Request: fold
Amino acid sequence: MRYDRTVHVRTDFATTVAAVRKALAEQGFGILTEIDVAATLKAKLGQDMEDYLILGACNPPLAHRALEIDRTIGLLLPCNVVVRGDGEGTVVQALDPDTMTAFTGLEALRPVAEEAGRRLDAALEALKRP
Reply:
């Protein structure tokens, strides 16, 4: 089972990060956390790697619905979105919300996962437009 939703874009990293923030906001997601993996690995281990940013995106109404079903689901929130350098372009990956249902077996989460998936797909699709 794949657990990601991925798009490849031909824009540079900084431009893509700005576009991802905008696309997520348009779908009702705010960014709660941000982890600059490349900077962290450089600072802590002296290791270089491509630009790699993890954005912890959250759509509060969807998070609330999921938490009303299962308080433990917070372990799978927020929706992680990775933006990483990839040669001539940038890769953007979002955790597939269907993993909430698949992992927990709670069918009551399916409508939440489906709506989150539609919103994430719309955000990712927006990145492909010039």
About this structure: Helices lie at 13-26, 37-45, 60-69, 98-104, 110-128. The CA atoms of residues 28 and 43 lie 33 Å apart. The mean pLDDT is 95. The longest strand covers residues 79-86.
